[in-house]
Write a structure and sequence with these properties.
The complex is a heterotetramer, with 2 copies of chain A and 2 copies of chain B. Chain A is an alpha/beta fold. Chain A is built from 8 helices and 14 strands. By secondary structure, chain B is an alpha/beta fold. Chain B has 11 helices and 14 strands. The chains are: A alpha/beta, B alpha/beta.
């Protein structure tokens, strides 16, 4: 990775932005997903729409929000509704194209643990819990996970299924009857993992300068590789300029 | 009939040791002033229900008011964790009951609707169902997949902060609505706090904006700046600096005690608290004006 | 991306023979212009779902568009009965499926929520359950009484009239909300008709008023006076005289044919229909001004 | 009945108004119930609040509405919500004190038929159906029925239970688990019927000048009488003045 040209966070944001499509209805959290959506809107996906679990649709924030319930998300939004409505009429009904997920642990099948390290009733570390992610993972048409690549974050099996990816692989997700297609990519500072046909996360693309060995060393299972592992195009000067000058000029997240 | 009372009287009348309370508001309109008053009055053994416990319940746990929390996301949103809640759970000194956001607000929706439960589609994530026996399943009598159900939540008291209300408790709310309305209809008693008490005619000028009707409200309290460090859309900004400082304020017994002594026990009420915050904070939290376009309801007076 | 099209194109694209349609609106905002266009286009074998079939479906039944009605109250509200519906049911020439109001809107709520069914408490009135096998029962897994459930209703098309929308279909609605929102979210396709097409900035000035978002809307049609003889709050009054005259207009084949020939087939579109109503009717239906008090959403522009 | 002094409709409205209590939250239809509520508000129950199934709370209409969805009910109301909310949060939740009911048939136990005369599938006369009445009858704390007294309207058994009163009497209503107390009075142009402890409608009060025989002749079952059948006070000049001059000056309903 060319540390001089861009940092790990910028790299993840830019690669996440590229996965978004024009017209996507995106259920978005603050921080990196928010920046990725705004970058996509300013580049190839001007009609992408951001939806917040707090009940805000089509936000046009005048400043970078700290929380998903920030007042700047509301002023000038297209619509605001109750949380019950956003989860019922939007997410459960199938109106959300993309969900972003994160967590302390992501496993070989894209399952996520954001609840607890250790035993649930006698926790070693208690984490915040599901929030909206249990339903987002199940019901958004596609999900993306953005996370730094560290071995402790990528165990073979998570301690707790806060939200599911492909469960145990094969047709185990489909058999639960959930409507969404599950996690379509995990974007890290080293690479992009994607599910193969069995729902197992495999190496799909390396960021410039990164190697399979580096990725494997930071992954808790024997990582498979796609037949043709791609190399992601380096962040362009224009992507970096928008990110740094327009979206996060105070460098709160990047 | 006016229900206007001071906040301390309202808390005295409607919040009792052992109660289940729901201090409503998703990021927005969180009634911090009411919770400071509950702490000042020394309530104990409360069950604290909120989708996001937020700093407001972390503070109550630290102050020793809580026996149990019911929640769906126990972080400091966008910042980090809630130390007192986390440690209470880790050490086994605090009981807890956990849902997803949708599970939590579905419980309120059931409670608000007079139903025993609300159904949700399956999510495949069965671990929460496994550890929380309140999650159950119901067969779809039309032949589809089983649905997941959660039981009604009917708190003893809901505390709901709003932008403006009349003296009987008819309230206009705008901005993020969270679970304000569901919590109020679900609760046995409702304490309404309001930035402004307005004439009934203001409420009647826009009846579609009235999300909480007087008939379910027990007490109306005029409490400007009630929500700080949370915010009230159109009245004052979220104090993000305070949310960022919470890690430090809450980091140990000494720090949290100093905070409680100064900002909760050290002031009489929210007016004094707000004054104490000082002009710089007031100016930092100032919001500009951006008004809604009016709508015409139509006049039907006899010509 | 603008979705503005003429109403006749929208009907052509989204309403097909055999479809289930839900022309929404409880007394308020009933989209008569859209139904006149469906009749003009000669659609057949439709299943017509509405809580109150009202004159709008009585007219469609009379015009031969309907195979079946799904309803919960089949009267002419405050006046009398709906002759063509009633006779269709009595003679067995019209299929029907019947609910209570709450059953009907619960079906839409389930459909709008992506759920297979919605629960309701029991009412003791089991005769409707007996004659309509779509009513079923579910055991309360928390040990209370069984609940009654109705299945999701997901119409092929919902037609929803609103006061104002932008060209993509984000819509402000005020006044009686009926089941507008639930019908729109439940349907596979949504045709939105609006009194006014406004700039997006008007919608964005009051996001809490946006009950229907563009993402679920397929076509946006600018149709002033779409609702007559129903009404649009703040735009024109309900034509109660017309509702009272319906008994006479609908009383036999000859009368209803004369009405259809003159007011449906005899005009090209709603603009012509409204002109034809004449100045006296226009003035009778005029409403005065009674504006909502504005609310401040707050500006957060960088200082 | 003194026909010169007041008519049957006025008599029913005034007697219905007297049954309402100050502070009652009343689920109200147009016509007679609407006039009864407005009369009660102008006399002994100024804090009575009218709620319409269309989702309107605390209406202050500037003119007499023709339908329960009239725009004049909305302008200046305290609150307007969706129909789903009015039935869920208000009625099913138990926030409604009083419901008004009507129908083509009312039987000995206060059950109502507003659906069909004859067989449901081969109707002799098809009626409008439940609308909101199935749930109002079950869930409002108290219900009142206002109807002209005619034999065909008061059969011993209704052809169809559109909404229930006391079902078959005894504890049969309570056993259904519905929350409301059921019909508390039937106000007719001849008398007031009230349920006895078995839930059977019996003669509780006669209007001035009316006789038991007259009532029995217009009732389809052997009518019992209360131990002390009262005589309702005649409409007062003030009640009649408010009704005629203030509430329905155009005599649409009265």
């Amino acid at each position: 990775m060319n540390e001089a040209a861009y940092n790990a966070t910028e790299l993840m944001i830019i690669n996440a932005a590229r996965l978004l499509q024009d017209g996507d209805q995106v259920f978005v959290g603050v921080g990196i997903p928010n920046l990725a959506c705004n970058l996509a809107r300013r580049t190839h996906a001007p009609h992408l729409q951001m939806i917040y679990e707090a009940g805000v649709i089509g936000a046009q924030p005048e400043r970078l929000p700290l929380s998903i319930g920030d007042p700047t998300l509301v002023s000038g939004a297209l619509a605001v509704c109750s949380m019950f409505d956003i989860f019922s009429f939007y997410l459960q009904r199938g109106n959300i194209d993309v969900g972003f997920l994160g967590g302390a642990q992501i496993d070989q099948f894209g399952n996520i643990n954001a609840t607890v390290i250790g035993d649930y009733f006698h926790p070693k570390v208690r984490l915040p819990g599901s929030g909206g992610s249990m339903e987002i993972a199940a019901w958004a048409n596609r999900c993306y996970i953005i996370t730094p690549h560290q071995k402790r974050r990528f165990p073979a099996r998570v301690d707790f299924h806060t939200s599911i990816g492909f469960l145990k692989g094969g047709d185990s997700r489909a058999k639960t009857g959930v409507r969404g297609a599950g996690p379509q990519a995990v974007v890290t500072n080293l690479c992009i993992l994607k599910p193969n046909e069995q729902g197992e996360l495999i190496l799909a693309a390396l960021h410039p300068g990164c190697t399979f060995e580096e990725v494997q060393a930071n992954t808790g299972w024997q990582l498979k590789q796609a037949p043709h592992v791609e190399v992601t195009p380096a962040p362009t000067p224009e992507e970096l300029r928008i990110l740094r000058e327009e979206l996060d000029p105070q460098r709160i997240y990047i | 009939m006016s229900k206007l009372v001071n906040l301390n009287e309202a808390i005295q009348s409607y919040v009792h040791d052992g109660d289940t309370i729901y201090a409503a508001g998703f990021t927005h309109l969180i009634p911090f002033a009411a919770v400071h008053e509950i702490i000042r009055q020394g309530r104990k053994d409360l069950t604290l229900a909120r989708a996001t416990p937020d700093l407001i319940y972390d503070l109550m746990v630290a102050a020793g008011c809580a026996r149990k929390v019911i929640f769906s996301y126990s972080g400091n949103p966008g910042v980090g964790s809630l130390k007192w809640l986390r440690e209470g759970i880790q050490n086994g000194t605090l009981e807890w009951e956990e849902y997803s956001h949708f599970g939590m607000i579905s419980r309120l929706q059931a409670g608000a609707s007079g139903l025993p439960f609300m159904p949700m589609r399956q999510t495949g994530a069965v671990d929460l169902e496994r550890v929380n026996p309140q999650y159950r399943r119901v067969k779809d009598p039309y032949g589809g997949d089983d649905v997941i159900v959660v039981p009604a939540l009917n708190p003893d008291v809901a505390i709901v902060h709003v932008q403006r209300a009349d003296s009987e408790g008819n309230a206009h709310i705008w901005g993020i609505l969270g679970e304000q309305r569901e919590a109020a209809f679900a609760a046995k008693h409702v304490i309404l706090t309001a930035e402004e008490i307005v004439d009934e005619s203001v409420i009647r000028s826009d009846p579609n904006r009235t999300l909480i009707p007087a008939m379910i409200v027990d007490a109306v309290c005029h409490v400007p700046y009630c929500a700080h460090p949370s915010y009230t859309q159109g009245y004052y900004d979220r104090d993000n600096e305070f949310y960022l400082k919470w890690e430090e304020i809450s980091k140990d017994e000494a720090n949290i005690k100093a905070y409680l002594d100064e900002w909760v026990f050290g002031v009489r009420d929210r007016a004094e608290y707000w004054q104490k915050l000082g002009a710089e904070t007031h100016s930092r939290l100032h919001v500009g004006q951006r008004l809604s376009a009016p709508v015409n309801y139509g006049s039907f007076a006899n010509e």
